[in-house]
Amino acid sequence: MYEWPESQRAHFYEIFMRSEKTDEKGKTSTIYQPFTEDEATLQQALDLVKQMRVFNPKMRIQVILDSPSGQKMTAVYRRELKRRMPGSPDVPMYRNGALRELFDLESEDQVDALTDQIFLNERQNRSEFTSYTLRFCKPEESEDVFKDGELNIVLSSSGMCDVGPIVPHLVRELPRSDSTIVLTGYAAPETVGGKLRVASRTVKNSVSESLNLGGTEITTSNIKAKVEDLGGYYSGHADCDGLVEFVFRREGNETSSKPACRVFINHGDDKMRQALAQSIQQRSDRGASTDCALAGIELPTSASAWFDLDRDQWMPDEPLSAQDDMHSMLLKLVLEQRRTNDLLTELLRLQKLPKATPNNFTKPK
Question: Low-confidence residues of the chain, pLDDT below 50?
Answer without folding.
Answer: 55-56, 356-365
